[in-house]
Design goal:
Low-confidence stretches: none
Order of helices and strands: HHHHHHHHH
Strand content: under 5%
Shape: globular
Largest sheet: none
Helix content: over 70%
Oligomer: single chain
Radius of gyration: 18 Å
Structural class: mainly alpha
Mean pLDDT: 94
């Protein structure tokens, strides 16, 4: 469990610098240069991610059950992640009405993903993992939306074709993950587990 906790602190910590230490982060970028800063950022993120995966895997071997969720919550979580995938694609395929309306669609997608998994998982390590991501994404979403409003930032719309592309790619990615990759990578089949 310690590796999971350290991983979460590193991964979410480095991804929170813009929220809690915006000025310090900007001064470090100026001091080190954009390339070296991004390299350091990526390295800390990668180490944190590896520790999260490793720590989560270790905790799965001897789980501490807090509650036992009903089977239907797995199916609900699988369906809730559909909009999460669409929102994730909207973050990387800008120009959609979705991105324009939401602003930070990856964070909204992360909130939905984390909430869905909190509802369908009942072990301590799962609650810590998904609860941490939910708290982080809620806080960062609020900060970034306030910053957008204060700086009058708007996300442009290319057109309806971009929305269609976001939805098609999002649904396709969700189907591949829900029906195949989740079982291969995580060991749990969302619909048949």
């Amino acid at each position: 469990m310690l590796a999971l906790l350290i991983g979460l602190v590193l991964f979410l910590g480095v991804h929170s610098l813009g929220m809690v230490a915006h000025g310090w982060r900007n001064s470090m970028v100026e001091r080190l240069g954009r390339g070296p800063w991004m390299g350091l950022y990526a390295l800390v993120s990668l180490v944190g991610f590896i520790l999260i995966v490793w720590g989560f895997g270790q905790a799965r071997m001897a789980p501490t059950w807090v509650w036992v969720p009903p089977v239907w919550t797995r199916h609900m979580a699988a369906l809730l992640t559909l909009p999460a995938f669409i929102l994730l694609v909207a973050a990387y395929l800008p120009g959609s009405h979705i991105k324009s309306r939401v602003g930070h669609s990856m964070l909204l997608g992360t909130k939905i993903w984390a909430l869905a998994h909190l509802l369908s998982n009942g072990t301590l390590h799962e609650i810590i993992l998904f609860g941490s991501f939910l708290a982080w994404s809620v806080a960062l979403f609020i900060v970034l939306r306030k910053r957008d409003r204060a700086n009058a930032i708007h996300y442009p719309v290319v057109g309806l074709s971009r929305d269609i592309a976001v939805i098609v790619v999002g649904v396709g990615a969700w189907a591949a993950f829900a029906l195949w990759l989740h079982r291969v990578l995580i060991g749990v089949h969302p619909f048949f587990g």
